[in-house]
């Protein structure tokens, strides 16, 4: 069984996630399923990820937990 991640006692992790998602809007849109309607309303093309959500979660985890080591 995997070890439980204690987010509430490690606020730096949460801040890392927020910072990464803020600094990488294309990644954020792909992760949270960019919609065609929102893209059209914003005057841009829809972001589609060639990587699956699992791969994107690995990227985000490496960003967050890689900094804490």
UniProtKB/TrEMBL annotation:
Residues 32-55 are annotated as: Disordered. Residues 32-54 have a biased composition (Basic and acidic residues). The lineage of its organism: Eukaryota, Fungi, Dikarya, Basidiomycota, Agaricomycotina. It comes from Sphaerobolus stellatus (strain SS14). This is Uncharacterized protein.
């Amino acid at each position: 069984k995997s070890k439980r991640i204690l987010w509430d006692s490690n606020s730096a992790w949460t801040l890392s996630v927020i910072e990464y998602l803020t600094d990488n809007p294309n990644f954020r849109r792909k992760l949270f399923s960019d919609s065609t309607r929102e893209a059209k309303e914003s005057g841009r093309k829809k972001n589609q990820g060639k990587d699956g959500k699992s791969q994107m979660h690995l990227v985000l985890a490496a960003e967050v937990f890689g900094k804490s080591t």
